[in-house]
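Q: Please design a sequence for this.
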């Protein structure tokens, strides 16, 4: 199996993470006992049917939730992590002031409002803004490109978790903003789906951000992806964050 993490040295961190977080969480759990039981049983089935994987204990809960979201075991192997990705995501979340900037509204709607509110997080997307549409037409670009540029102009990318599940051009533009305009998201969850530039955009994100000091990312190699996968990955990070905070407080 191909390696799932770029070979660099992770940053030093004091964060302690628990992989069995769903047994300790309240806010990031299903609201009913029946719902919790179904979700936990699903995770157990996935663990049982995945005979082997090369992910770390911190990465696997994210991949498992992505598999759970689509019943697609190909994400065991297709999902790749920058070595600092999980740490960076958790650090951003527990700061209790982090933004999620998305390429499409679907991600913002799919994320659990109570879970985000627990960590003081807000969501932002600009794909349907009139100025974004007008500029995209005038410059013969995509709305997704202009939406990323608007987020950067507004100062929303720096320190944010950026989720891209639909538009490869959004991820390509984000890589450019990182490289040429010093945009510095805390974490990029780059999972655009499709047949035109989807695989290439994710490769570009990985190639341009390979060292320990670059912007961390989680991507799905190849054509597969989608907004539901971005939502699943961020929900998994929220669950890990809640478990980490509980551990630190001795709960």
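A: Design:
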């Amino acid at each position: 199996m191909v390696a799932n993490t770029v070979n660099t040295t992770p940053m030093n961190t004091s964060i302690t993470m628990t992989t069995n977080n769903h047994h300790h969480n309240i806010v990031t759990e299903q609201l009913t006992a029946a719902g919790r039981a179904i979700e936990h049983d699903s995770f157990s089935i996935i663990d049982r049917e995945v005979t082997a994987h090369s992910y770390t204990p911190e990465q696997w809960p994210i991949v498992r939730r992505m598999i759970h979201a689509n019943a697609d075991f190909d994400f065991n192997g297709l999902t790749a992590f920058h070595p600092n990705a999980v740490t960076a995501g958790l650090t951003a979340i527990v700061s209790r002031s982090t933004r999620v900037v998305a390429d499409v509204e679907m991600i913002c709607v799919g994320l659990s409002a109570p879970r985000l509110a627990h960590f003081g997080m807000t969501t932002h997307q600009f794909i349907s803004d009139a100025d974004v549409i007008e500029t995209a037409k005038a410059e013969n670009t995509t709305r997704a490109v202009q939406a990323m540029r608007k987020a950067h102009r507004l100062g929303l990318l720096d320190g944010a978790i950026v989720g891209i599940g639909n538009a490869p051009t959004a991820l390509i533009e984000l890589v450019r903003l990182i490289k040429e305009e010093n945009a510095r998201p805390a974490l990029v969850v780059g999972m655009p789906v499709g047949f035109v530039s989807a695989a290439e955009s994710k490769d570009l994100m990985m190639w341009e951000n390979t060292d320990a000091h670059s912007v961390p990312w989680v991507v799905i190699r190849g054509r597969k992806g989608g907004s539901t996968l971005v939502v699943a990955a961020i929900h998994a990070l929220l669950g890990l964050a809640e478990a980490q905070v509980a551990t630190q407080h001795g709960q």
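Q: Thanks. Anything notable?
A: Residues 6-22 have pLDDT under 50 and may be disordered. The CA atoms of residues 148 and 170 lie 6 Å apart.
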